[in-house]
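Case study 2.
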Amino acid sequence: MPVMMRRCTVLAFALGAICMQAAHSLWPEAEAEAGHRSLNRAGFDAALHTVLDRYVDPVEASPVLAESLKRIVSGLDSYSHFLTAEDRQQIRDRSRGGTTGLAMKLHRAEPGTRKPAWVEVTAVLPDSPAQRAGLTPGDQLLKIRGQDVAFLLSQAEAEALMLGGDGETIALTIQRRSEPAPAPANLVLAGQPRNLVEGALVLRGGRNFAHLRVRAFRGGTADLFKRNLKELRRAAGSSLAGVVLDLRGNPGGDVPEAVMIADMFVAEGVLVRTRGRGGQILREERAHPDGSDSNIPLVVLQDHASASASELLAVALQDHGRARVVGERSYGKGTVQDVIGMHDGSQLTLTIARYFSPKDRLIDGNGVEPDILAPAAISASVDASLESALAELGRKPETL
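Prediction:
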């Protein structure tokens, strides 16, 4: 690590403690005794100026401020982060169309413990580079491109390391759930994944059911879903008895695509709402009656890796009474980030709101509770969760 970066890192770590000491010495004793012992903006500014002006060696302000801001913002939650202009340029240089086909989450270092940051694989798309590399949900990435993830500050830094071009190889060190020790692996990036929506007719009890699996939400996913459902309806003739909307392992993505799918089955009312500071409603997405199918029996299938946009879709259908949710409690990611460009070319990504269901249920940190608990199948030959969903659809329509 370069000398200047080491110095910036040390100063950034120490800044909090220095602020407390400097603020106490810079404020009048009477003010401190009056109860003003909590660090405020004035105290922070005073401590920062002290660091920049009085440290034994000259301090370049820009890298110290950037490092401090990275730590401040990334400490708020898992999805807020700060990128310098140089960070953004590096990301642009690395972004050359290659994809991994995995979703991951950076678990930050826990204050007061020795547990460092670590990266968890939360979802793996089928026939993707991640699947071909043998990655599965629950695996841990210990090193990416030779860099120890324990020193990463934000999710954005982890994701930036996974960028590259089609055919590029990324060296990983992985702790697999099924192995006792870490092992190296090579992940070869590929182009954009296909088959984000897969549909099939399933015959049970002499009746046809549509099984539609949505792997992730990208631009055009809602149209793909609609097209697949239309083809299955045509194949089933007039005998389509219900739909299983399978969101297992779906890490989310474009929320508007998920909302459009919910709109296909709900004729009126709020589909999703966002609330900002103080609970203020910032936005509501509402259903449209045109083209909505409010009658066909519907079951949503989810698991613990179903996250973000997939949770919003599931809970919208659940709250409107349009679908029963079968499976496991979902992941619990329901926040809105605003991307704010700064005058120097840096960029702040900040959580400004949380998603709520039509009945005002909080998604973030809670997930979506299934109506029918159906743990993930242990046997590879029998999809027990899907069978539970089909069994629920097979009940008399008036009992759904």
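The mean pLDDT is 88.
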